[in-house]
Amino acid sequence: MNLGKINVITPPDKLFNQNPSILLVKPTNDTKEAFQRYICKVVEELNIFVFDTNETDFDWLLSVHSYVDITIIDVDNCDSITRSFVSFMLAQPDTYYFTKDEITPYHLISKSRIYDLASVPFFKEIQDSEEGEDE
User: Fold this and answer.
1) Higher pLDDT, 5 or 86
2) How far apart are CA 36 and CA 40, in angstroms?
């Protein structure tokens, strides 16, 4: 099996091509490690946009968010300014989020809360295809 090419893009760079694209917003180290375990099995080319801990280019964040196929936000890891944009991003389709916050009613904006990456359809397909190969 030949693994696909994975492009990791961070602000201020952008890459516009036909590859499936995923945006990670303020991912924790645990999220990054889980993400890496999945993408190492991807056989197609993939763009990974990362808006990491110290990033502040919100123009980049919003423009990339409107372009990518999937956005995954670690709400609890967002700083106060990034949280200002979370509600907007959660209201968009194909945006998934992690949070342990049971007080803020994010569920009123989006039903796409996840507890692990396997809940995201893209990663579920990877897991299902891997399980199919084992049988």
Assistant:
1) 86
2) 6
